[in-house]
Design brief:
Helix 3 (121-145) packs parallel to helix 5 (162-173). The chain has helices at 33-39, 48-64, 121-145, 150-157, 162-173, 182-185, 225-230, and strands at 24-29, 68-74, 77-82, 113-117, 188-201, 207-218. With 238 residues, it is an alpha+beta fold. It has a six-stranded antiparallel β-sheet with strand order 4-1-3-2-5-6.
Length: 238
Amino acid sequence: MANSRYEYVKSFEAHDALLPSTWIVIRIDGCHFHRFSDVHEFEKPNDENALKLMNSCALAMFEQFPDIVFAYGVSDEYSFVLKKSSKFYERRSRKSCIDGEVWQFKSHSPLPETHGSVNLSRVMQDVENGHINNQYNTCFWMLVDSGKSKREAQDILKGTQTSEKNELLYEKFGINYNMIPAIFRKGSCIYREMVDEIVKYNEAGTPIRRPRKKVVLDHCDIIGPEFWNEHPTILLDK
C-alpha cells in the first residue's frame, strides 16, 4: 500500500499505543490444536516431539527479536515478554505480533492466533494453568487408556483436588506425578543468562574470558521468588 493511491487509508488508523514503560506480553496460541493433534496422532496428554518443535521455534524467536527477555511455553501456547522500554512496532497493540515466518510451527499446523497484553501476570497465570491442566489431562488420558469412556473419565475427575489426582495416579496406575518429566509438569521457559565465555588463551595458557548473554531453555518452577532471585538480570530491561 505504501507509495500507492491507497496510502490515504493509513490516516484512518487508530492510535492504539500500549502504555509506556510497561511489560508487553505476546501470547501465541495454536489454532484448532485438538483437531491438529488428532490428525497427526500426537501422544496424549503430551507429545514430546511437538513440544521440542515449539521450543526450537521459540529459541529462534529470541534470535530474531532481541527485545524478548523471557518466554514461557506449555501445551500449544507460548507467551513472550518484551522489555518495558521496547519500541517494537511503536508499541501499537494491533501491531504487537510476532512474525509468522519465524514461528516455524506454522509449517506443521494452521497459523497460530496472536494478541498483545501488558500484564506480566499473564505468564504466571499460564504457569499455574499449565500445571493444573497437565495434571488433569494426565489423569484423564490414563483413565481413557484403561478402558473408561471420555465421559466416565470426566465424571471421575469432576471436582477433584490436586492431592486426589495425585492419589488416583499412584493407586490406579503406579505413577508418581512428581516424577513425570519436568517439561510436561512445568512447561518450558527461555531467558538470557550472563556467562563468561573463553575467547582465547594467552601465552601462559591462561584463558581470557569475556561476559556475554547466553539463551537458556529450562523446565523449572518460575512461580515462586526462588527462580527470579537466582536470575535477577532477566527483567533488568537492559
